[in-house]
Sequence to fold (166 residues):
Amino acid sequence: MTIFLCGFMGCGKTTVGKALAKKLGLPLIDTDAYLVEQEGKSIPEIFAQDGEPYFREKEAAAIRTLCRENAVIACGGGAMLNPESAAYAREHGAVILIDESFDRCYARIQGDANRPIVQRSTKDELHTLFDTRAKVYRAHASHVISGGASPEKMADRIINAVGIVQ
Fold:
């Protein structure tokens, strides 16, 4: 089974993904790390040299490729904004929204030099982006998991939501 974790930057996709992958005995693939490896440059370099549309195109291609994996996929914050990617992921796995508060996400991402959108945006702009993306994430998610718990507890919530018997 492929489980795609989506949500806003800093919601805990990678951290929860590690706990979930460990519990399920599956590999964790972080789409941002995957793209960095594929492109041979950091995300800020990709944004600066090739632009955000190029990054989003490569991100969509990564989702299509990774659907073939039996893995936990921690998606970048924008990956499930593409309706085609989201539909493809739902068709080939479960799309789990980690529903975390803006304040908790912002506390984790503020000042992160590896996040170009954070670097070029004010807190208010990020909050507006959070609100806009939240609606899209919800529309594309197979399951919505409330945040605010330990990664292990979140992993258990996902396992229960997806109906995996251990």
